[in-house]
Amino acid sequence: MARLVMKFGGTSVATIERIRNSALHVKREFDAGNEVAVVVSAMSGKTNELVAWCKEASALYDRAEYDVVVASGEQVTSGLMALVLQEMGLPARSWQGWQIPIHGSDAHGSSRIESVDGAGILAGFDRNREIAVCSGFQGLHAQSNRIVTLGRGGSDTSAVAIAAGLKADRCDIYTDVDGVYTTDPRVVPKARRMDRVSFEEMLEMASLGSKVLQVRSVEIAMVHRVPTYVRSSFDDPNHPNPGTLICDEDDIVEQQIVTGIAFSRDEAQITLRRVADKPGIAAAIFGPLADANINVDMIIQVVSDDQATTDITFTVPAADFERSKSLLESLHGQIHYQALQGATDVVKVSAIGVGMRSHAGVAARAFRALSEKGINIRAITTSEIKFSVLIDAAYTELAVRTLHSLYGLDAA
Ligand code: ADP
Ligand code: ASP
Ligand code: MG
Asked: Ligand 3 mean position to 179 CA, how many Å?
């Protein structure tokens, strides 16, 4: 007997028929004698609809009320999943985030889970192996007694955090692909499914744009050592495939130099022309951006040719582009740049692999391959196990495919 958390994403609960099929996966595990907690997302498209309603109701919406609205999608599917399981003759009840409770920080719209109290769910397991159907994406901020949500894709994090809280043997993330691929299979049909991927690489892939798992869910899996699988709810419930295991680097036998390619369209580029080339100028630019909670990623400062001024280029999340521009415009009196230029039609393409620690020249090969395709690189960053290039968005697919082939990742 094992204790499992099974998470079903939006497409896996998109209709009552899909919920029934997902419930058959739950039934299989229950019938095998396991204790099961289920975590559900909202029906696919629902959260987008709820977000749009909030914006329509109030342009500068109150974030606490936003959370009340967007958390409702998961309440619906948890109740429906419990009903479908009961209909199959299984003991099941729904749990909202505040009922469990899952405590989160007060950062409405991007709350961080602080604790999960598993007592109620465990009591149900002890009573009659009751299946706990938990709403993903939501929690409770205890001091203010208000609902919080965990940021887009947050049901993955709910699932892994509940698995950690219940000391589960495994967390299975059921989705519309049968595992983690070397890159998004929707963009590169030759992408390969991996049997295993290390926590570190998965963390980089997720934070660099592979939305198959929310970044925070990988962090929690890594810290609490939760064996986490990504697998398909579209498999025959009686003949399921194991999917991809996220695990320790040491548990992976055949290590590639580059294991995956990720890309993110949520980037924007800002260039400040002819700012004074003198001490303190970077602090004058990036200090206020940091104070405004704007996350600057890539930074390039050109060596000055006139010894007096220089150009500085950097990237910010696309969602913060307008805010960054107006902030910098308000600082014109202090920074004295000649012009502020911006671009949002850019994409960041990254290659990830722990093998980069021990191999030189991995990124250089990419620069050459991209230039041979006529793709101009606007900015570059590197770190121990990844490098990223910023390019024109129009070249996204070409660049991802080029790097995927270059590092030998294409399926035969
Ligand atoms: P869910 O609704 O189940 O949470 P998501 O849409 O959030 O599903 O995540 C699954 C999607 O992630 C896949 O359909 C796939 O297009 C995308 N994806 C991006 N990168 C990868 C990758 N490296 N491996 C697998 N899927 C990926
Ligand atoms: N429903 C939420 C979203 O669409 C959470 C999730 O699906 O993980 O972002
Ligand atoms: Mg998701």
From this structure: 13
